[in-house]
């Protein structure tokens, strides 16, 4: 799905060669500051490498329209982004951003259930807890039905049990719908639960002195 | 119109007693501001006297070239003032957007006001053109200054939200919509507030000046309403033009958020 060749981000990353397979659940592990989030930003084209080339489906990312790429390769940041308004507003805004049609209440409610969010669609999103906001922004990305999910520690604010349940449910959805998932996690346990492939970022990190 | 009361030199000198009072206050309280107060008073007096003589000359010799030169000088000073007033260092591109927006927005509103609303003949009649240009340029300058500051600080404080929208495939326009709208709103607010308070909390300067010089209050009010609407038009046009051009400079050709205007 993705291939990185001689990619360098000054002071952070140096990747000679890295391939991330299609339709698989890939977990990215590594200590803080090893460039995990930087890698996801590169794949979402939110920033560009200082050197090297990234390929998406064998095509250089720099040749792909960034909007079209981001609509296929959706990223969810670690700090959840809330856009103001209700839970429903926050779910629908992703669809409106990517030019897709609005979905009905039933669809949104079943998504909230999947993410163990026992809330009404009309509830103010700003009043949710950190963990709830994290699941809401994850659910918002799921409504977009992208080919690739880039998830930056999507369970960091969840308790262990909720994290396991939500992640297992998401894993099943990804398997059934042949989605490519690239997820950063600090938890080796969670990685073992879902990962079909793991990438240890410390080997690419400039800071760690291993590259 | 014929009962205009001219101020004698002594009467005008008596007004300077207010400055003496201010100087006594700061001296007694030990506030080190005497020099600035004196300098400001001298500058204000000299600048206005010079402008008075300049206007007398221009009014006696109406000439389209003179009028246009005066407008150009006012515009340049206003643009330069916006550059100086912003709290953030401005890049070349941002300065260009400010200059373009102020040029197009102000001139469009000014000529519409002079040619259509007032229907002045000849169009360059300095008695109308210069004071009206002064009011329109001054207010637009304040609006754009607020717009610049709020746009830049909005991008800095809403960075995560803007990138969060981009991650989902939003266009820069959609991603920056909230920041642009808030910047527009805060730039327009002083103008809207001054409309609300006008006539009750204060009498606007132009109207007061006209009434003091013997114009009927009704005529003065008509002019004041017209100029206020002209100011609203110019401020909104200038600010929206600026914002529409400027938000794009926060994104590069890969539609990535780049904060080059925020490097300090």
TrEMBL record, chain A:
Claim: Cell inner membrane is one of the keywords in the record: no
All copies of domain ABC transporter, residue ranges: 2-210
SUPFAM superfamilies tied to this protein: P-loop containing nucleoside triphosphate hydrolases
KW Nucleotide-binding (keyword) present: yes
Pfam families associated with the record: ABC_tran (PF00005)
Keywords: ATP-binding, Nucleotide-binding, Transport
UniProt superkingdom: Bacteria
Molecular function via GO: ATP binding; ATP hydrolysis activity
PANTHER family in the record: ABC TRANSPORTER I FAMILY MEMBER 17 (PTHR43423:SF1)
Name of the protein in its database record: YbbL ABC transporter ATP-binding protein
Species in which this protein is naturally found: Mesobacillus selenatarsenatis (strain DSM 18680 / JCM 14380 / FERM P-15431 / SF-1)
Lineage: Bacteria, Bacillati, Bacillota, Bacilli, Bacillales
Automatic annotation (TrEMBL), chain B:
InterPro entries for this protein: UPF0014_fam (IPR005226)
Location within or outside the cell: Membrane
Predominant localisation class: membrane
Superkingdom, natural source: Bacteria
A Gene Ontology term for the protein's cellular component: plasma membrane
Record keywords: Membrane, Transmembrane, Transmembrane helix
Membrane-protein topology: Multi-pass membrane protein
Transmembrane segments: 6-25, 37-59, 65-83, 98-122, 128-152, 183-203, 223-243
Family affiliation: Belongs to the UPF0014 family.
Name of the protein this chain belongs to: YbbM seven transmembrane helix protein
